[in-house]
Amino acid sequence: MMRRNAMAALCLFVLAAPAAAAPLVSPFEGLAVTPKAGKAKACDDIPAPYTGKLEFASKYAGSGKARDRLNPFALFSYKRSIADIEAFEKGLAANSDRHVRGQAGAAACALAWLHAWAAADALAGEANAQGKAVRKWALAAAAFNYLKIRDAKGLDAAELRTVRDWLSRRAEQVVADHSGGDPARMNNHLYWAAAAVAASAVATDRRDLLDWSFGVYRRAAAAIDADGVLATEMARGARALEYHNFALAPLVMVAAIGRANGEDLLALNDCALCRLATRVETGLRDAAWFSERAGSRQALDEVNGKLVPWVAPLAALCPGDARLAAFAQQHAPASARRLGGNLTDLFAHGAGQRLRGDDATCRQLWR
Prior knowledge:
The chain is mainly alpha-helical. The chain has helices at residues 2-16, 72-81, 83-100, 106-119, 129-149, 157-177, 188-204, 207-223, 231-234, 240-260, 268-285, 288-294, 311-317, 322-330, 343-348, 359-362; strands at residues 335-336, 341-342. The model is unreliable at 6-18 (pLDDT under 50).
């Protein structure tokens, strides 16, 4: 009798236990790679894993409160200090791009780069403010490019596991780096941290990390005003338009990760991201509004696909928008080594099949 009762209790427990959550979904799900004939290209030398302190000069050192004037001496020092990190980001994106185009061995090469840095526990050092920025950008590059290549055939399971463990540790560190600050100073740095952590969350199937990223997105959506403006980025004076554009890219990627996982972040605050995208797109065509509002003529590089990487994932979220499609075509290929390389090519190869959502939300883009 006691045994029967114990079995009955166990059955009730099993029936009452909640179902396991489905694995987190990559925004790149659906990527279809057609292998090309030929031998694998030799893998380039891997940059030395960066294991020292992340204490770097800011390129805006001494520029005042707006931080809108470059300091050429600080910029030179900064670039020299991060050379290996920058080479790591660029090489990852180049290899993941070659994988998408079907080049033999490209995914294995990208994994070799990731594994070398993971095995060395790179990017773990003490950091100043600029170092924390560099850590999250490098994490974004590692995580998004990992998502592009992780399903390639023949990759070493142990190496993949080592990389995932490393991404998990660095994501925890980025969360710590960007938590507990003054909410009034929330800016593009926090949004890039959210994108890096969200990609890492998907790579490691950690919903706690994803929840943190979505929380940041919700705060960002609440901060976008009726004109599509982020107050902290407007305070950048001559670089207000540049930093609105820079803030938009990671927010679009977090929204894409949300859509892939059943969370419609795009619709928050009456489609706040739509207002930001509209403001940025019109500003890139004519910066006069930003110049007047910020009180400074805008300093902005020539608009090209590297400046507007957000256009490819946003077009994947809103595939029926003719104006957005034309803008995307005009500036193709949209690419950013820290968001997964050539995004135009990636989505053209079938990635993003879970991104399309409610067309009513997308129709708000150009209000």
